[in-house]
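Weekly structure sync, notes
Attendees: PL, DS, HV (note-taker this week)

Item 1: GntR family transcriptional regulator
DS walked through the input record. Source organism listed as Antrihabitans stalactiti. Sequence as pasted into the shared doc:
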Amino acid sequence: MVGRGSRQDRPLGEKVYNSLRRDLASGSISPNERLGEERLAELYGVSRTPVREALARLLADGLIERDHHGLYPYRPRLDELDGLYELRVTLESKGIQRVLDDPTLSHDHALLRAELGTWEQYRSASPSAGSDLVIADEHFHMVLLSSSGNPALADALEAVNARVRPARALDALSDERITTMIREHVHIAELVLEGRLRAARDSLISHIASSQTTVLERATRALSMAKLGLAVRD
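Item 1 (cont.): predicted structure, written out as tokens:
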């Protein structure tokens, strides 16, 4: 068996981590399935060491959780998610509202133009669905809020994102939804740069609400599947 610290094992650990994260996001691993090292090692054709390494990272990410039976895929709490999305709306809309309320304030246009350029490029070559897209989406919203000039708001949003991220990983975005995300991000950034802040705020709130609906629907399905196996786990 390859040692934990060897050069051979580190790429294997990364490979298993990415594969397991993808399978968790796609739902190909049941929410009730215990994530045993031996079975996963057989599934991915590796030793237990890189599996153990991948599971430790996923546990730190919040994508899996531990109970008295072992490790299982993270099961989102709907009431918590609802509150977190409400907080997202409050924080992100406040970034635009504070500029609306104070004529001495303005967004950092250079910062926002650079981010807009990234999303315009995505129209022809969008990031693939999965963790890369979630990270890109979070970055857009962080830049938009940061550009309003209040670092404390952006710090608060980062904390919210960390708690929402495991549930978003359950949601495998379709090509249509990726296209919609790109279009809406470009539109919101353009509205801010044009100084149409009320329209930008309203579009941003609608955009977040749409994301909330789809993530909660996916989380609800995951919870329903999980309930079917509670008797087995308990």
